[in-house]
Structures
1.
Amino acid sequence: MTSSNKLHALSKGIYLLNPAKTAIANEPKIILLFSWMGGRLTHLAKYSNTYNELYPGATQIIVRSEPSFFWSSQASRKRYLEPAVEALEALGGLVPVSKTAKSALSMDPSPSILVHAFSNGGASQLTTLGEIISSRGIPSSSLPVSALVLDSCPGDGGAEGTILAFSSSVSNPLVRGIIKFLIRFLYFYVSLQRKIFRSSSETVLDKMKARLNEQRVLPWFDKSTPRLYLYSTADKLIPYREIEAHAQRGKQSGFTVTLERFDNSPHVAHAKMHPERYWAAIQRLWDSAAESRSQTADHP
């Protein structure tokens, strides 16, 4: 990060990066980054720095994902994400729930927002944030420009893919062993329950995928909010067919969906192996979002 826009820790795991320059028209004012599980700041910085070059007028809110988030209660998840909610309030992205927060408004009443979620870890935090703020309005009668990037998600990689996702950031071999046992047991239990009781009960991943395909997964989204899937056929954690199936369901629901498929990049490594295609796809996504909202404003 440059000295002119230092990264500020809002809490353990949530950070704010101030804009490097004054925002200009047709660029996002806020960029929400939800990391993959165990993603380190040094890895996230590569994405954050590129976003800073592309959209220097944007304020970035960076949310790290840890395995414990999946096992936490809804109350614990809410506490973890509260600093991100407060930052969105202060930046004008949400209607504040307290009078004190109103004095912190420093940007347009409904700033444009680009949301980027990596893997199931980031997608889970995104949907949880949406559930927390689902009752909030936005401070304007017209929806702001917004767009959603789903990077290497969502999907169910089975027991082995889930083990890789949860254990990749754990160095303690004993803890890794416990994680492997618990995940295999959970998959076995769910499979057995469905066979014996012919149950179609939804798993955590099922609920997350369904939530992602809701029109208002975040309060400022609607059907015209464009969605970009960045994924690879070589991903060993999330099967690419699962991602494509999710995108197809979104299309059937009337969403504006674009797919950018890579053929040789590992999980959440598409930007590293195909930087030009990767960032060009995101820029096209944002340009289409701005153009779509402009047309809506001209022809209400």
Note: Confidence is low (pLDDT under 50) at residues 99-108.
2.
Amino acid sequence: MSVEEKLNQAKGSIKEGVGKAIGDEKVEKEGTTEKVVSKVKEVAEDAKDAVEGAIEGVKNMLHKEEK
């Protein structure tokens, strides 16, 4: 989990809320977009970490079998 992406999601949420509050659809949509893009990046980062962990697990298992 990336702290940077969590902060970007929070900034996007704030921007989205401000846009709603002042009736500015452009600002609201920009905030929504920032929030969604940051969440996608976070999920992709988590998936990458999970795959790397699985690969390491398989490597470790194979090394144990070789001995």
Note: The mean pLDDT is 93.
3.
Amino acid sequence: MNFLLKYSVAYIMDLIIGDPYWFPHPVRFIGKLITLLEKLLYRFSCKKITGGVLAILTIGITFLVSFYLAKLSPMLEIFFLYTTLATKSLADEGFRVCKVLVEGDMEKAKKELAYLVSRDTNNMDVTQIVRSILETISENTVDGVIAPMFFAFMGSFFNVEGISFALPFAMGYKAINTLDSMVGYKNDKYIDFGMVSAKIDDMANFIPARIAGGFIIPIGAFLLRMDYKSAWRIFFRDRLNHSSPNSGHSEAAFAGALGVQFGGRTSYFGKWYDKPTIGDKLRHFSIQDVEKGIKLLYMSSWIGLVIFVILLNLMGVMINGFTWWKYI
């Protein structure tokens, strides 16, 4: 079965099914693998080295398992490709908190948001909750959609015994992302042990973050009749106003498109931080901004798919000549 057909089915499955809570998502198994390996490796004194071993083993095992799953069946390959995408689950999380806000239950909204973000939610007002939802959606547009899509398409150019590396590349990226979310912290426990995982995550997101912020999100804003000019302007102006080398790119494009300002005073684990601002504060946040942000998320996922299909075809033409029948 052709890769584009497989991936299109996987993409549609994500839009329809998302990530149900009852479903044993592969990322949970990757997380359990990381926890097991951490218990075995953290005891050694050379934390940077053992942390590097943790990253290599996790990514390598995930890659190999994914390859053999793809080898077993095209249906399995499609299914696991679908699990690497998170468009609907991101949207559902945002809508869930937003719905509680509309109902007027602030305490429940704070609790629901706490499942979505790592910042302190106890003392937030409506504006801070909406800002947090949108910052999370904009950042995870890369981690949950564009980056796994990028790696799946890159992997489709490589194969062994006719088995594409699309799934191993995409699932390998999810392993990298999960490593960063579990051990990539700059605290006393993980500053050394998680250093390699954090650096690999930075490198893996370097290209997808810039493609998303510089092209995909502004084009999505244009198609949705949002402020695409500001999306580009804020992207080029504020994309580096973030502690992460990659997260600010998509956040800047989102902020520009929506006409809001991200960043500012935020509490993490009981400590307040003044984060650099991203975007112009043209108006205050409103609950309706969440709906606009989710529309931009969905449109960006579709634009990403179209762009990668076009690039795949162009690269195929350059490498193999014009073989359009291979893509239908």
Note: Residues 3-326 form one domain.
4.
Amino acid sequence: MQETDELLLETCLLAGKIMMENGSEVYRVEDTMNRIAANAGEANSISYVTATGIFMGLRSSHYAQVENVHDRVINLEKIVAVNRLSRSFAEKQITLPQLYASLKKINQVTPSFPLWLQVLSAGVVSSTLMIIFGGNWSDFIVTFFIGSIGFITGLWVKKAIDIRFLDMFVASLVIGCLAILSVRGGLAGNVDNLIIGAVMPLVPGVAITNSFRDILAGHLISGTARGTEAIFTAAAIGVGIATVFTLFGGLS
């Protein structure tokens, strides 16, 4: 009985951790964890989820465990994978040990978009949003390349240096430099349009949305923590652009 309870807690915590680290809302994480416990015969489980930690307990056995949440990225494929496994467990298609083993494999087997496609998508998002925000078609190609370079710069810095928000600062710094150099070199016509479009892939839109959804759902701590993180990310982007303007002496 004790081993079963421990396995159940570890399974619920692992499912919750995967969902939290990949952009799920707090209420969805708690609901998934409680459903897994209920389908395993523990209807009186209790879970408490924050942006940096997950707590899970079983009232019937007085067992409780805690799991840290370190990274927070956006990968909805992994969230879908967890939900799919949870439904399979609810329908008795897999056992609890099989569910736990499958969850452990999610980070390795869940496909993610290749790097070239991510960079290409960042360029497309940058150039199209530049047009939507009132830019000129003559700046479309330049914005595409600047947005792509800025995005891949952020990925490289995040992988090379484990300092939070530094990747956004360096990426926006590169974007600002390339934008000003492109205008001064006659490749584009408007610095504002280039920068506004190119920084769009860096803006933490999903984090801000999830922050408000958590707050509206009553999860004030998690919502505030996510909102603060999003604000710091936006501030890093703004400081990077402001640094470029300071170094180059403005837009001219």
Note: The longest strand covers residues 53-58.
